Amino acid sequence: MTELALLPDPASPLEFVTARTAFEDMLDGRVPDAAVAAFLTAMAERDETAIEIAAAAQAMRERMVEISAPAGAIDVCGTGGDGAHSLNISTAVAIVVAACGVPVAKHGNRAASSRAGAADTLEALGLDLDRAAANAEDSLNAIGLCFLFAQTHHPALGRLAAVRRAIGRRTIFNLIGPLANPARVTRQLMGIARVNYLETVAGALELLGTEAAMLVSGEESLDELSIAGPSRVVRLGACGSGETRVTPEDAGLDRHGLDAIRGGDAGYNAAALTALLAGEKSPYRDAVLLNAAAALNVAGRADDWPEGVALAADAIDGGAARDLLARWIAFR
C-alpha cells in the first residue's frame, strides 16, 4: 500500500521543489481528497505565485501524453471561467492562424463554465474527437493543425476530478492547463480571465523556458482580447516585454458589445463558426481577427496589429481557413 503523503502548509508561498513535490503527490494519488481540497482552496485564497504555478505545470508536463510538433508550433488557449459565454474565439483563431501557415497545437476541453467548449463545438462541426486524438501528431505535422483533448493527454488529472468538482471554485489547475500543452509548444497566446494574474503567469512561463508569449485579458475580465473595449497585454520573450493596453481600434477594427458575440450550445456555435469561415462579416469575425493578429505576432508572422488582421482576413476571405477545416475533419 502506498504511504500517504503530507502536504506543506499553503498559507505561505512555496519554493519550487516543495511545490512540485506537493503536486506530484496529488497527481499520483498519494494525498487524501480532503487534504487536497484544503490545500488548493487555501492557495487560491491567498493567490498563487509564479513559482507555484510553474512547479504545478512542470508536474503535469511530466505526466502528460506527449506528441511531437514541428518547429514554430504555437497554442492559442485561455483559462476559461470568464462567465461571458461567448462564441468559440480561440477555436476559430486556431483554424485561421493555421491557415496562415503557422502550426497550431490547440489544447482544449469540453465546456466547464460555458455551454460549448472547444471540444463540443469541434465535434458539432464534424470532427471525430477520438480519431483526432489518435491522429493529433500526424495531422499537426501534415496539415499544421491538431486538437489536443485535455482528457486524453492528461490522465493524471482524472484522479483529482471529483475533488475539484467538490471544491466548486477556481484553483491553480485552471491556470496551469494552458501551460501544459502536450506538444510542448514554446510559443503561445494565452487568455486569462483575471487581469491581476497576467504578470504572475508570465513569470511562470518564463521559469518554464517559454520562447515567446502574449498573455491577454479583456478589461471586462475576459480570457481573450476584447472586441468591446481595452485589453491588457503582457509580452514575453521574442514578443517583447512589458505590459500594454490594446483596443480594437489599434488593429483597425470597430468595437462591438459583448452581447454581439454571445454564444449558445455546440450546434449554435458551430453554425456561427461555419458562417465566419464562409466570409460572413460580423462582430464574431472582428473578435477572431483581433485575437488571430495577436497569435500571428507570437508566431513571428506579423509585426503589428493591422498586419496580423490583414493576414487573418486573407486566410478567411480566400477560403484557406474553410478548406483547412474540411481537410482536418476528413483527415485519417
Automatic annotation (TrEMBL):
InterPro entries: Anthranilate_Pribosyl_Tfrase (IPR005940), Glycosyl_Trfase_fam3 (IPR000312), Glycosyl_Trfase_fam3_N_dom (IPR017459). Anthranilate 2 binds at residue 164. Mg(2+) 2 binds at residues 223-224. Mg(2+) 1 binds at residues 90, 224. GO terms for molecular function: anthranilate phosphoribosyltransferase activity. Its EC number is 2.4.2.18. Transmembrane segments: none annotated. Pfam families: Glycos_trans_3N (PF02885), Glycos_transf_3 (PF00591). It is an enzyme of class 2 (transferase). Keywords: Amino-acid biosynthesis, Aromatic amino acid biosynthesis, Glycosyltransferase, Magnesium, Metal-binding, Transferase, Tryptophan biosynthesis. 5-phospho-alpha-D-ribose 1-diphosphate binds at residues 78, 81-82, 86, 88-91, 106-114, 118. Pathway: Amino-acid biosynthesis; L-tryptophan biosynthesis; L-tryptophan from chorismate: step 2/5. Anthranilate 1 binds at residues 78, 109. Residues 18-63 form the Glycosyl transferase family 3 N-terminal domain. HAMAP family: TrpD. Homodimer. This is Anthranilate phosphoribosyltransferase. It comes from Sphingomonas quercus. The gene is trpD.
